[in-house]
């Protein structure tokens, strides 16, 4: 399998455009990046990856000195991206929260929470869209589309609107959290509710894209992952600034495994540039819900491919996915970094969501899976007590108000009277 952690920087093929090209991760076929619309390999249908002749070191990343514009967030990493600036709101620069009480309860040397819910539309999907919509402009397409468990549709609608393009989203009927549908709707997407799960929506929208209806911006699109790899760069830089070392492990929720793939790719590029040693790459640790855990199954059984789960169910609707399309990129990422994958129950997810909220960090259920997974791996001894860990929380609490209401306490009705309120409080 390709995607070795210590693969040298590739030489640019003739089809490269300014040192950037697309390569198939299965057969190594290369393609010009912006000439035609293409999502997978023409030869073997394998996943494509964006490659660069000259991957950057930390020194080449922007200084972050400017408060706005290209020198902040995702675009601070423009040397590692196919363009200098995208359609931006702007995204990235998310907090790396300290959570001393959870750190103590879990029992690790250090625990930080990278809260991607603090992006413009409330999830990390914005990092992918700022690059993806820029590429759509380069390709000259007029309409964008995605299948979504919710957050991709919210981000696509917002960034499509920002870029003055039409947007079409396919959602699994009845299985998308209210905040996300509201965003997609108000930002102007045309919303189709499909009588099927996310995987069925993706099958349909892939076919629509193949027939030229719209440009596909699911994480199958390799350019989206370019934006998302900047999560890994921010974690490394910020963690190093505080601890003088990189984290041992990054724990993240897994749906289509786009982030797992993207973080691994970013780290490989730093290794290629000589900016990071192989031993310094954090162990990528994926977490899925028990009711939707095909990646965990593949990792546990040592398989290179996943078995598609037809029936998936979990309260964490953002990761209610049975056929993670980026598995061929993510499985090597987990394996080659000495990471692992683990499944958690919905109740463990809700407990972790409460735990984070108690420390002021409001996340949606899928996000809390990372912390739930860390707790479980610590209990089983897979994670050591001397590890320094970053958990990724992918989306904001307000994305899924119903789940938040259910996880939180009930409001108590009281009469409109001070004495009665005092009686109620103390009585
Ligand atoms: C999209 C999403 C995920 C899944 O991420 P992948 O990169 O597809 O594995 C997890 N959590 C939230 C909140 C999401 O929106
Ligand atoms: Zn191929």
Automatic annotation (TrEMBL):
Residues bearing N6-(pyridoxal phosphate)lysine are 125
Q: Give residue ranges for domain Tryptophan synthase beta chain-like PALP.
A: 87-395
Tell me which domain of life the UniProt entry assigns to the organism this sequence originates from.
Archaea
Q: What class of enzyme is it?
A: lyase
Q: Which cofactor does it need?
A: pyridoxal 5'-phosphate
UniProt xrefs under InterPro entries? Ser/Thr_Dehydratase (IPR050147), Ser/Thr_deHydtase_PyrdxlP-BS (IPR000634), Thr_synthase-like (IPR004450), TrpB-like_PALP (IPR001926), TrpB-like_PALP_sf (IPR036052)
By its UniProt entry, which Pfam families does this protein fall under? PALP (PF00291)
The biological pathway it contributes to is: Amino-acid biosynthesis; L-threonine biosynthesis; L-threonine from L-aspartate: step 5/5
Q: Which UniProt keywords apply?
A: Amino-acid biosynthesis, Lyase, Pyridoxal phosphate, Threonine biosynthesis
What EC identifiers does the entry list? 4.2.3.1
What GO terms are given for molecular function? threonine synthase activity
Q: Name one GO biological process term.
A: threonine biosynthetic process
Q: Which family does it belong to?
A: Belongs to the threonine synthase family.
Q: What protein is this chain from?
A: Threonine synthase
Classification lineage: Archaea, Methanobacteriati, Methanobacteriota, Stenosarchaea group, Halobacteria
């Amino acid at each position: 399998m390709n995607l070795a952690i210590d693969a040298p920087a590739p030489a640019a093929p003739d089809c490269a455009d300014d040192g950037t090209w697309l390569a198939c991760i299965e057969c190594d076929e290369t393609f010009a990046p912006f000439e035609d619309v293409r999502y997978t390999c023409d030869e073997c249908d394998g996943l494509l990856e964006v490659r660069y002749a000259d991957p950057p070191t930390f020194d080449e990343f922007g200084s972050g000195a400017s408060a706005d514009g290209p020198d902040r967030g995702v675009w601070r990493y423009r040397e590692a991206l196919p363009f200098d600036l995208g359609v931006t709101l702007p995204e990235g620069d998310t907090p790396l929260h300290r959570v001393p009480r959870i750190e103590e309860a879990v029992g690790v040397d250090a625990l930080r929470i990278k809260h991607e819910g603090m992006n413009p539309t409330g999830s990390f999907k914005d990092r992918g869209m700022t690059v993806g919509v820029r590429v759509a402009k380069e390709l000259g397409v007029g309409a964008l589309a995605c299948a979504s468990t919710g957050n991709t549709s919210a981000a696509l609608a917002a960034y499509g609107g920002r870029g003055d393009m039409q947007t079409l989203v396919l959602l699994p009927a009845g299985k998308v959290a209210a905040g996300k549908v509201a965003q997609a709707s108000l930002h102007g997407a045309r919303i189709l509710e499909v009588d099927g799960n996310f995987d069925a929506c993706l099958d349909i929208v892939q076919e629509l894209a193949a027939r030229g209806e719209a440009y596909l911006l699911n994480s199958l699109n390799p350019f989206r992952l370019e934006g998302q790899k900047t999560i890994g760069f921010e974690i490394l830089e910020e963690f190093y600034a505080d601890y003088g070392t990189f984290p041992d492990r990054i724990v993240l929720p897994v749906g289509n495994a786009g982030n797992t793939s993207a973080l691994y790719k970013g780290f490989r590029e730093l290794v290629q540039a000589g900016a990071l040693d192989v031993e310094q790459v954090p162990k990528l640790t994926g977490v899925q819900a028990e009711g939707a855990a095909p990646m965990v199954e593949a990792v546990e059984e040592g398989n290179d491919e996943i078995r598609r789960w037809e029936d998936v169910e979990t309260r964490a609707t953002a990761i209610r996915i049975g056929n993670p399309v980026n598995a061929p990129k993510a499985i090597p990422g987990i394996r080659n970094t000495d990471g692992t994958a683990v499944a958690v129950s919905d109740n463990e997810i809700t407990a972790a969501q409460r735990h984070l909220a108690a420390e002021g960090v409001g996340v949606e259920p899928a996000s809390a899976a990372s912390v739930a997974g860390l707790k479980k791996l610590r209990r089983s001894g897979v994670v050591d007590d001397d590890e320094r860990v970053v958990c990724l929380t992918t989306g904001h609490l307000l994305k899924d108000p119903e789940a938040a209401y259910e996880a939180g306490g009930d409001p108590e009705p009281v009469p409109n009277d001070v004495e009665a309120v005092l009686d109620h409080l103390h009585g």
